[in-house]
Structures are given as structure tokens and as C-alpha cells.
């Protein structure tokens, strides 16, 4: 789970395993595997960073030894 912020300023927690893709249009749109779309305040890079951290924590992908 990753914490994000709706455009209204309301924080929420998203199951990162449901993320299909993320776009900057210029707002950040998160498209889920369910077909739902969520617009968040965080920039695309931050959503990707939090998602990668989540997957590394769950040991679904290996931790990188280089800085991103």
C-alpha cells in the first residue's frame, strides 16, 4: 500500500499492486488494473518511487544498489 493525495488534498492509501500505469497529463493520472483512474497531487516520479519501494519491501523486485 502507498499513501497518495487526491487533488482535493485528501490523503488516501492505494494498493500499489493494482497500478497498471501512471501518466503526467500534466496532472498525475493513475490507471488501475480495474480500469479506474485516480488523479493525484504527487508527481509521476514520486508515484513510481513509492511503488518501487513498496514492491522492494514486499520483495517482489530486488532492491537496487544504485541511486535512482
What does this structure look like?
This protein is of the alpha+beta class. It has one domain (2-57). It contains 1 helix and 5 strands. It has one helix spanning 44-57, and strands spanning 2-5, 11-14, 19-24, 28-32, 37-40. The protein has a 3-stranded antiparallel β-sheet, covered by helices on one side. The protein has a two-stranded antiparallel sheet with strand order 1-2. A hairpin with a 3-residue loop joins strand 3 and strand 4. The radius of gyration is 12 Å and the shape is globular. It starts with a strand and ends in an 11-residue tail after the last helix.
Write a concise synopsis of the structure shown.
This protein has one helix at about 45-55, and strands at about 1-5, 10-15, 20-25, 30, 35-40. With about 70 residues, the chain is α+β, with helices and mostly antiparallel strands.
Please supply descriptive tags for the structure shown above.
single chain; 68 residues; 3-stranded antiparallel sheet
Radius of gyration over all CA atoms, rounded: 12 Å
Helical content (DSSP H or I, runs of 4+): 10-25%
Largest sheet: 3 strands, antiparallel
Element-by-element helix/strand order: EEEEEH
Low-confidence stretches: none
Termini separation (Å)?
Answer: 21 Å
| Coarse shape | globular
Number of helices: 1
**Total individual domains:** 1
Q: What fraction strand?
A: 25-35%
How many strands appear in the DSSP assignment?
A: 5
Please state the average pLDDT score: 91
Helix/strand class: alpha+beta
Strand order of the largest sheet: 3-4-5
